[in-house]
Amino acid sequence: MKHGLQEYFVETARQVADPDENQLPSETESKCARLGEIFSKASSEGPAFDHLKKTTTLFGGQAISPSSAAGCIEDLQRSIKFIQAGYLATKKALEKFEDRPIRVLEIGSGPYAPIATTLASLFPQGEVEFMALDIYEVSISCAKKVAEVLGQNNKYREDGFIVADATQIILPEEHRPHVSICETMFTALEDEPQIAITANLADQMVEGGFFLPEQVRVSALIKEKPGNKYLGDIYVLDRSIAERVKTDGVLDPIKVEAEMIAEKIFHTDTKLSKTGNYIIVETRVKIFENIMLEPGESNITATFPVYFKGKGKALTIGVKTGLGIAGGSTIKKVVSSDSENPCGYDKNWINSHRLSSFWRFLEKLMPPGYPR
Ligand SMILES: C[S@@+](CC[C@H](N)C(=O)[O-])C[C@H]1O[C@@H](n2cnc3c(N)ncnc32)[C@H](O)[C@@H]1O
């Protein structure tokens, strides 16, 4: 039976990662849903995690619970595109680098490591070796068991199941990946630590390696009749952040925090309505080359409207938001429009964020065992 499951897994993995030309998009979706069922079945032999439903607040954002992380595979277009992008990037890395094996790391693997383990089934042992990293010990133990049940554990490095905080870890030279794949984000880069993790890990790679996603773009549009008018980008995340936030090669938490507060003023001649106006926030993810997740295509690129008051002709619109700041929905509090004072938003918001970061910073200075 186990052998049957392993073969079924490899066949399904292939159909999701590299579908033949005649496969309809709806068929790829149903194959990905089947992958989810296979992972769930395989994990039933590992440690229980489905009762672990609490998120953890860390520097850089929230680590969603092991139970929610397992559910992410059901965000089908997200999963399909990350797996396809990882497959393409790994093939390109095999062409680009002479080293064997090349290393592929799934950052924030959850209890299934669905991207790494799916890809593992498609590359021969010795050519590529895989690693999975997560903050939760139970997720990593489960990912290890899942890889074993699906017959892929021999494709992982022996020390390739890593429990660590991805915003802090320094990877040893022999762990540095040729391909890193990281989906630790929510729409509009709210709540989860994609920014802080990219800041820490995008330059801890083999020179010339691929960090996925290549870019996350959060944009603002204003609702007009008819249609929406593009105002501009609120924030664009790519691997260049890693250079901006390091001092002498070491992550500087203050610089990371500065990145996590985006403040933009857009000029517009939109006529505002007294009854209310909307900024539409769009998220677009360029995972690898031409593989994109477009606004509205997945939970992590869901589009949402932000209501604000105003009248007359707007000259400027101010948008201020906390990105990856645990506690979320920050953008909703901070949009306003006023030609005199375009950023007349809630000043307490920023102060309370600063206060809690300062407290986290102090906690780090406390001796181990200090009562919390
Ligand atoms: C959205 S889930 C993705 C799960 C899986 N990679 C997938 O694509 O379906 C994000 C994962 O990142 C992990 N995570 C969040 N913050 C982390 C951190 N600072 N260090 C390590 N892992 C983290 C969470 O525990 C969770 O398992």
Question: Overview of this structure, please?
Answer:
The protein is an alpha+beta fold and 372 residues long. The protein has two domains: 1-184, Rossmann fold (3-Layer(aba) Sandwich), CATH 3.40.50.150; 216-372, no CATH class. 32% of the residues lie in helices and 27% in strands. It has ten helices and 19 strands. It has helices at 2-17, 25-43, 66-71, 76-96, 114-120, 137-149, 194-201, 241-244, 253-259, 347-365; strands spanning 56-58, 61-63, 102-107, 128-134, 156-163, 179-182, 210-212, 215-223, 228-238, 246-247, 250-251, 261-267, 271-272, 277-288, 291-293, 304-308, 312-313, 316-322, 335-337. The strands form six sheets. The protein has a five-stranded parallel β-sheet with strand order 5-4-3-6-7, sandwiched between helices. Strands 8, 9, 14, 15 and 16 form a five-stranded antiparallel β-sheet that branches. A three-stranded antiparallel β-sheet has the order 12-18-19. Strand 3, helix 5 and strand 4 (128-134) form a beta-alpha-beta unit. Helix 2 crosses helix 4 (76-96) and helix 4 packs across helix 5. The radius of gyration is 22 Å and the shape is globular. The N and C termini lie far apart (49 Å). Residues 58, 63-64, 69, 72-73, 82, 106, 108-110, 114-115, 134-136, 139, 165-167, 183-184, 193 line the site of S-adenosylmethionine.
